[in-house]
Amino acid sequence: MSEYPVKGKKEKGKGRPLFGRRVLVTRASEQAPALIDALSKLGAESVVVPTITIIPPPSFAELDQAISELDQIDYLLLTSVNAVTAFFDRLIAQGRDARALAGLQTVVVGPKSAEALELHGIHADLMPDDYRAEGVVALLKDRVSGKRLLYPKAALARDLIPAELSAAGGKVIDPVAYTSVPPADAAGKLQQALIEGLDLLTFTASSTVQNFADLLDTKHLALAKQVPVASIGPLTSETARKLDFKVIIEPSDSTLDDMVEAIAKHFSGTQNAEHGTR
Fold first, then answer.
1. Do 38 and 72 belong together in one domain?
2. Alpha carbon distance 183, 118 (integer Å)
3. Of 138, 154, 180, the domain-final residue
4. Total domain count, the chain
5. Which CATH number does the domain housing residue 148 bear?
6. DSSP string of 113-158?
7. Are residues 61 and 167 in the same domain?
8. Which residues form the domain of 140?
């Protein structure tokens, strides 16, 4: 086990609550840099082993059809950065641009999705206070009766949004925009990281947790379950706890920035606690 502060390095780690800590980053490689940078500023050594890779669905036919009928859509629901990227990739593939969204309302799940949308020159019309699918439902359920909604989704997305908004009288079109798979080389890298020692596991989606567990054999999974977990929100935490991981950090808002802030506060307040497998 390691203890904070690291002996002989107190001054160097001053004001950096993760100094001397090894933190596992499991986000998809294209999304990992923001978390790596934030952890680095706190003094952590990021051990980067993505447990998901974002890939196209088997077919874009349903999404392309929906995009071709955007003039019939009242609300466009974008519930992740990946959804924003996939939607605009297909919009551009049809020779169209952001002007095709004129006349409809754009709904994002949270600040990161809003930022991704703004990169395409569009300011989100609506964003819930609760940055989850539940928040989107609460925001829209009294607005959608008789309306048509386009919800480009992940292949493994929960049915909550289509089910609840359809029940509220909306017509929800929910084509699969992207899917994910575990990277081929992740298992060996995870095993090595666990053997070398980790002080914290970070999970930013239920799929990262499930894939992490599926990639490990019994021996290494048991080792992983000794390491504390920082989870981005309730759904991810629920998945982690069902798999017997020790979730010790969960922010009040399900955003990356809030998760990093919660990690910093936790380690600032538990400097003498035991953490990790080191």
1. no
2. 30
3. 180
4. 2
5. 3.40.50.10090
6. HHHHHHTTT---SB--SS-SHHHHHHHHTTT-TT-EEE--EETT--
7. yes
8. 55-180
Residues 131-136 have a mean pLDDT of: 94
> What is the rounded distance in angstroms from the CA atom of residue 262 to the CA atom of residue 42?
12
How much is the pLDDT for 277? 58
The answer to whether residues 161 and 193 belong to one domain is no
pLDDT at residue number 10: 47
pLDDT mean over 210-218: 96
Mean pLDDT to the nearest integer, 129-145: 96
Q: Assess if residue 17 is contained within a domain.
A: no
Show which of 158, 180, 202 is a domain's final residue: 180
- State yes or no: pLDDT of 266 exceeds 60: yes
The answer to the question of residue 11 being in a domain is no
Element (H, E) at 246: strand 246-249
CA–CA dist 247, 250 (Å, integer): 8
Length of the chain: 278
**pLDDT at res. 197:** 97
Pick the closest to residue 173 from 228, 104, 247 (CA basis): 104
Q: Which range has the worst mean pLDDT, 8-12, 52-56, 271-275?
A: 271-275
Residue 8 has pLDDT above 80, yes or no: no
User: Which amino acid makes up residue 35?
Assistant: L
**Both 223 and 117 in a single domain?**
no
Tell me if 278 is assigned to some domain.
no
CA nearest to 37, candidates 49, 25, 28: 25
Locus of tokens 């009242």? 74
Average pLDDT over residues 202-216: 96
Does residue 276 form part of some domain? Answer: no
